[in-house]
TrEMBL record:
Protein name: NANS isoform 4
Domain PseI/NeuA/B-like: 8-136
A single GO BP: carbohydrate biosynthetic process
Domain of life where this protein originates: Eukaryota
Pfam family, one: NeuB
Natural source organism: Pan troglodytes (Chimpanzee)
Length: 140
């Protein structure tokens, strides 16, 4: 369970790693009256995270259950493709670990992004945001 220590309205990011959907519903009920300025991140806590364990569709479920808060994605996979896909599915916040060297010891360096990959992630996300466009069909 989450212990809310500071509910002064500062933005709060709450990751869902290792939490059930029922727990996230409880967290929402506790946090919302104290600080409406928060978001949930879909997260599967594994390093590195395998594609079949990502469950990006949880983003859509969170959007339905919690339509009044931003929903994002906390990724621990290798590469940037899955994070870009999360944005295409509506993620408003991305969280990725960064490292200067993937070969360093530690459980998450291999799944972290090096500076060049982080730059490519930003470029790719901005491209996807432009490509999403509007729901209005336009003829060129």
């Amino acid at each position: 369970m989450v212990l809310v220590l500071d509910y002064s309205g500062r933005p709060m990011v709450i990751s869902s790693g290792m939490q059930s959907m029922d727990t996230m519903k409880q967290v929402y009920q506790i946090v919302k009256p104290l600080n409406p300025n928060f978001c949930f991140l879909q997260c599967t806590s594994a390093y590195p995270l395998q594609p079949e364990d990502v469950n990006l569709r949880v983003i859509s479920e969170y959007q339905k259950l919690f339509p009044d808060i931003p929903i994002g994605y906390s990724g621990h996979e290798t590469g940037i493709a899955i994070s870009v896909a999360a944005v295409a599915l509506g993620a408003k916040v991305l969280e990725r670990h960064i490292t200067l060297d993937k070969t360093w010891k530690g459980s998450d360096h291999s799944a972290s992004l090096e500076p060049g990959e982080l730059a490519e992630l930003v470029r790719s996300v901005r491209l996807v945001e432009r490509a999403l466009g509007s729901p209005t069909k336009q003829l060129l």
